[in-house]
Amino acid sequence: MAALPNGARAGGACTTGLTAMGIAPPERTVPVRVEQVTSQVYTGAIPNPWSTCIMSTYKIAVFVGSLRAASFNLRLARALEKLAPDTIEFEYASLADVPLYNQDNEMSMPPQAAKVKDLIARADGLLFVTPEHNRSIPAALKNAIDWGSRPWGKNSWTGKTAGIVGTSPSAAGTAMAQQHLRNILAAEGVSVLTTPEVFLQYTEGLIDDQYTITNEGTRKFLQGWLDRYLAWVAKLAA
Ligand SMILES: Cc1cc2nc3c(=O)[nH]c(=O)nc-3n(C[C@H](O)[C@H](O)[C@H](O)COP(=O)(O)O)c2cc1C
After folding, report:
1. Which of 4-8, 82-86, 153-157 bottoms out in mean pLDDT, i.e. has the lowest?
2. Is the CB of residue 32 less than 8 Å from the CB of residue 3?
3. Which of 14-23, 148-157, 217-226 has the lowest mean pLDDT?
4. Does 157 share its domain with 105?
5. Helix 216-237 vs helix 72-83: crossing angle, to nearest 10
6. Mean pLDDT over all residues of the chain?
7. Are residues 132 and 180 part of one domain?
8. Which of 39, 152, 185, 207 could form a disulfide with 190 if both were Cys (CB 3.0 to 4.6 A apart)?
9. What is the pTM of this model?
10. Looking at ligand 1, which residue's alpha carbon is closest to its atom 20?
11. Higher confidence at residue 107 or residue 43?
C-alpha cells in the first residue's frame, strides 16, 4: 500500500505499474474526499494519475484475434484476466460473427459490427491478444478494426488506450503480427503501450485449464506487463 496525502492510501496493480513507469504519487496535500474507507474508494481532484488508481473501476475491451475454441491466445487473455484486480472488468468482443466489411453496408451497419463499435465506445482500455497469421494479424481482427473505424467521421478507435500481447508456438511469439497491429492502430489514433512487449512462445501446459500460468517466471513477467498496462490506462484516463 502507498501513502497518499490526507492519509489516503492506494494499492494494487495500478500503483505498482505507476511506480514502474516512474510516476510518483502526488507530493502536496490535495483535497481528497473519502467516500468509502473500507474499500479504499475516494473521490476528489488529485492532479496525478494516482487518483485514478484509487477511484476507478475500468472496463477493458478484449480483442482475441483467434476464433479457435482451443486458442492459446484466448487462454492468454483469460490468464491476464485472472491476474487483474477485481476492479478491472474484461469484456470480450465477439469477432466470429461479424460479417466481412463492406462499405455498401456502412450506413445500415450489421448489428454484430455495431456491437463491436459499442464495446469500444464503452471501454476505458483495449487489450489485443492476437496470433500471427502469415506474418500479420488474423483477418477476423482486421475486419473488426475496419468496421470500428467507419463510417467516416465516426471512428470508434480514436483516442482509445491499448495494449498488445500475443502468443504462438513459434519462437517469434507473434512479433511481426504485433508490429503490423501497431501500425494499424497508429492510423486509427489509438495510444498503444510501447514497452514492455510480450512475444510469448506457447508451450504445452503453459496455461492450465483454470487459466493459471504454470511457469513462475512467465507469470511474474505477465503480471508486470499487466500492472504497467493498467497504469497506462489509468494515466490516460486521468
Ligand atoms: C493461417 C495460419 C497462418 C499462420 N501463420 C503463422 C505465422 O506467420 N507465424 C507464426 O508464428 N505462426 C503462424 N501460424 C501458427 C499459429 O501461430 C498457431 O496456429 C497458433 O496456435 C494460433 O493461435 P491460437 O492458438 O490462438 O489460435 C499460422 C496459423 C495459421 C492457421
Report:
1. 4-8
2. no
3. 14-23
4. yes
5. 70
6. 85
7. yes
8. 185
9. 0.83
10. 168
11. 107
139 lines ligand 1 (CB under 6 A): no
Kindly state if the Cβ of 170 falls inside 6 Å of ligand 1: yes
Distance CA 24, CA 5 (A): 12
CA of 56 from ligand 1 middle (Å) equals 37
Ligand 1 in contact with 163 (CB < 6 A)? no
Total count of domains within the chain:
2
Residue of the nearest CA to atom 2 in ligand 1?
133
80 CA to centre of ligand 1 in angstroms: 20
Residue 234 inside a domain? The answer is: no
In the reported structure, the alpha carbon of residue 36 is separated from the centroid of ligand 1 by a whole-number distance in angstroms of 47
Query: 85 and 193 share a domain?
Result: yes
Residue nearest to atom 31 of ligand 1 (CA): 133
Could you tell me the three cell numbers for 116? 463491436
Across 37-59, average pLDDT: 49
Atom of ligand 1 nearest to the CA of 169: 17
Report the pLDDT averaged over residues 50-54: 50
Domain check: are 66 and 46 in the same one?
no
Distance between CA atoms of residues 166 and 133, nearest Å: 12
Is 207 close to ligand 1, i.e. is its CB under 6 Å away?
no
**Residue 198: φ, ψ to 5°:** -120, 100
Of 12, 36, 54, the position where a domain reaches its end is 54
Over pLDDT 90: what percentage of the chain? Answer: 75
Measure 168 CA to ligand 1 centroid, in angstroms: 6
* Domain residue limits at 112: 59-224
Q: Are 66 and 162 part of one and the same domain?
A: yes
Q: Does residue 106 sit in the same domain as residue 145? A: yes
Cα distances (Å, whole numbers) of residue 98 to 43, 73, 123: 39, 19, 19
